[in-house]
Design a protein that fits this description.
Number of strands: 14
Radius of gyration: 20 Å
Shape: globular
Order of helices and strands: EEEEHHHHEHEHEHEEHEHHEHEEE
Helix content: 25-40%
CATH superfamily of the largest domain: Enolase-like C-terminal domain
Strand order of the largest sheet: 5-6-7-8-9-10-11-12
Number of helices: 11
Strand content: 15-25%
CATH class of the largest domain: Alpha Beta
Structural class: alpha/beta
Largest sheet: 8 strands, parallel
């Protein structure tokens, strides 16, 4: 726990939670059976009163997923939050005290909800963005055999024939077979594939046209972020290359501008809604497409992402749908659209 002086009264608490995934979630880098998340609560003083003795039970909450790919761990994120100096802390100064990533993301979301509740407003009103609306989110199919990913696509297409679907690729010789199996099972689906950095530029040049011929609209982070110079000027008709691991904050947009056609904005990478919203807007000003994504998480992390939906064209917000069970008030799919979670903001 971190607590400011009596004049400030801000208290942050951080804890670990573990949520079982339905089956398993497998990408090119490995698989997992549980979503390990960090939950932060923010309040003023003790419940029931503020520093002036007035009634104040407002609490803000945030959730983020530490990601090993970015050098994060649950213990490290919690330690960073517990070591945070909260004197004079608000969302505007948070970026000066924590780097982008899961720790800052969870605190930023908690401070935003606290700010909204103390003001008697909704979080979207505080940010000055349109109210959250239902969106057609991608449904993710994990890495598996061509036969299994085809079966998964068939089941998803039964509810929503036109998708959108997101297929994880492994970087092996079966990737095109996986895509072809999904296309046979879901012939009308809008399709994005995601190798999670497992391809090379040479493979993208070779197999990219085949993906486009199979009706794939986007390929997300095909090559390692640190080795994407070969993407400069590369175009594959009909196929948009999307940055994910290569873009975290606005500081990454200069190097992304001539390598990618769109970016995947995730609150966990950006360090909260505050930076993520600014990232969406600057990317659009630069002519880049914007996709709002998420980690495998509960709807406590998905709800803040809905504040970004007015700035994006593509949505990958099915993280909580991959769990065995979500929090009460989580997003519900109706008519192919994911409704905004009601548990936050």
């Amino acid at each position: 726990m971190t607590e400011g002086p009596a004049s400030e009264g801000l208290v942050l608490e951080a804890r670990r939670e573990s949520w079982p995934i339905r089956g398993s979630f497998r990408i090119a880098r490995g698989s997992k059976e549980r979503a390990e998340v960090v939950v932060v609560t923010a309040r003023r003083g003790t419940p029931g009163s503020d520093t002036a003795g007035r009634s104040s039970d407002a609490v803000g909450r945030g959730e983020a997923v530490p990601y090993v790919r970015y050098g994060e761990s649950v213990d490290g994120v919690i330690a960073a939050i517990r070591g945070l100096d909260v004197r004079g802390l608000d969302r505007r100064s948070l970026g000066e005290r924590l780097p982008p990533g899961a720790a800052r993301a969870a605190v930023d979301c908690a401070l935003l909800e606290l700010e909204a509740r103390e003001a008697g407003k909704n979080a979207w009103e505080v940010l000055g963005v349109p109210p959250p609306r239902p969106v057609a989110t991608m449904r993710t199919i994990s890495v598996d055999s061509p036969e299994e990913v085809g079966r998964a696509a068939l089941a998803l297409a039964a509810d929503l024939p036109e998708g959108p679907l997101k297929l994880k690729l492994a970087g092996d010789a079966l990737d095109l077979d996986r895509v072809a199996a999904v296309r046979r099972a879901a012939p009308s689906a809008w399709l994005l594939v995601d190798p999670n950095e497992a391809w090379t530029v040479d493979r993208l040049r070779r197999d990219g046209p085949a993906l486009a011929a199979l009706g794939v609209s986007m390929i997300e982070q095909p090559v390692p972020a640190a080795a994407d110079d070969g993407l400069r000027g590369l175009t594959i008709p009909g196929l948009t290359i999307v940055a994910d691991e290569a873009v975290h904050t606005r500081a990454d947009l200069d190097r992304c501008a001539d390598r990618y056609g769109a970016i995947n904005v995730k609150i966990d990478k950006a360090g909260g809604v505050t930076e993520a919203l600014a990232l969406c807007r600057e990317a659009r000003e630069r002519g880049l497409g914007v996709m709002v994504g998420c980690m495998v998480c509960t709807s406590l992390a998905i709800a803040p992402a809905f504040l970004l939906t007015g700035e994006a064209e593509v949505f990958d917000l099915d993280g909580a749908l991959l769990l065995e069970e979500d929090r009460p008030g989580g997003g519900i799919v109706r008519g192919g659209l994911l409704g905004p979670p009601t548990l936050w903001g």
